[in-house]
Amino acid sequence: MDFVSSLSQLPAPSSRRIAFRVTPPAERAIRMRHPWVFDQSITELSHTGAPGDLAVIFDNKRQFLAIGLYDPGSSIRVRVLQAREPAAINMEWYQGKIADAFRVRAPLKKRDTNGYRLINGENDGLPGLIIDRYADTLVLKLYTPAWIPHLKDFCGALAQVSPANHLVLRLNRSTAVQIKSLHGLTEGMSLTLQTPPKLILFKENGLVFETDPINGQKTGFFLDQRDNRARVEKLSKGKSVLNVFAYTGGFSVYAARGGAKEVVSVDVSASALEAAIRNMVHNKLTVHHETIAEDAFEVFARLASNKRFFDMVIIDPPMFAQSEKQVAAALSAYRKLTRLGLAVLRKGGTLVQASCSSRVDNDTFFESIHRSAKDAGRTLKEIERTGHALDHPVTYKEGAYLKCLFATAS
Asked: If you classify domain 5-9+90-198 with CATH, what class do you get?
């Protein structure tokens, strides 16, 4: 991998480590390998520093507890890289972490898949950073500027373990606006010399999908739903399928390959649905495929009013709860979607409903669906409850976000 010169010109982190002491609860959390240290947990620090400086945390006996990335602008003040045993954080250390993550994903090669999450942030021991692979393109997304001073070493390690033709940088909103801390790096820029193509084709379980790694949502595709899409394929033969919040038609394409007689994809984005149409073409699928570029709630209401019913309804909305204050509203939205989905689902049909809101726990989410079904006069017989795929491992409580219910509605 040949990288742009701006990567080598990034400032290195300070050689002076910041020493921290934290509260007893924070000590216990670190010992249990929680990856975050919050600002309110800090009781003492030697000095302030810049984003990306290394912070060394000591316990109440002044023994080494952890080392991590310092971020003075975030309530997550330290993102823990190494706990319990001291380690030098360098290219070799990054190479080991990336190699560990790479081995976890090895089974995907046997599934005719070259689109997957290579690094799942905190859950792979690299907090505040994710990498998604789409064939020969890697998309690196940062959730903190604390990674900027370490990118040269990190990318060097990445090139050794999982090289690619292209490496695209994505930044979350809070990081993208911290211009001074980015040192010239920008959202969507290529970190490799070769300009990546605007649209990339990759494979997932033998199906071909396109993605826009620069302008697409997340890193261009919702890779976390791969296993649930495969489950939909197995349940779709001979059925009429309604896919709501379809984005670029992931569930729709799987349903078509599974033998669905009709697929309707609904999304507010007309451009996303155009990609859904192309994804059908990429796979030479000739199922009757209707796209509706409108608000999902309005479409549901109209379909019900027109007494148009389906054998399967898939509801995979965006994150509704980004904070604890939004949980009640999120649950209300999920319950409303359940009622709307059941209103157009035939008796004996299959409901597939997912949530990607980590603030809403599994039990509460599944209970809300059953309660809404009962209120609508329907009974759900569960087929399966699902969570995370192997390339989206979960190693701490807040890392669990995806849950999906497959159920038959009578």
From this structure: alpha beta
**How is the chain split into domains, by residue range?**
5-9+90-198, 18-83, 222-409
The C-alpha atoms of residue 401 and residue 252 are separated, in whole angstroms, by 23
Cβ atoms of 335 and 360 closer than 8 Å: no
Query: CA triplet 225, 227, 229: central angle to 5 degrees?
Result: 65
For the chain, the distance separating the N- and C-terminal CA atoms, rounded to the nearest angstrom, is 55
Q: Indicate whether 322 pLDDT > 80.
A: no
Q: Give CA–CA dist 305/69, Å, rounded.
A: 54
Read off the amino acid at residue 13.
P
pLDDT of res. 326 = 87
Confidence of residue 324 (pLDDT cuts 50, 70, 90): confident
pLDDT-derived band at 323 (thresholds 50, 70, 90) equals: confident
| Domain 222-409 of CATH type 3.40.50.300 | no
CATH of region 18-83: 2.30.130.10
> What DSSP element (H or E) covers 283?
none
The greatest distance separating any two alpha carbons of the chain, rounded to the nearest whole angstrom, comes to 70
Residue pair 262/240 in contact (Cβ under 8 Å)? The answer is: yes
Amino acid, res. 291: T
Task: Name 310's bridge partners.
Answer: 345
Q: To 10 degrees, what angle do helices 270-282 and 250-257 make?
A: 30
Residue type, 285: L
In whole angstroms, give the CA distance from residue 114 to residue 132. Answer: 10
Cβ neighbours around 12 below 10 Å, total: 10
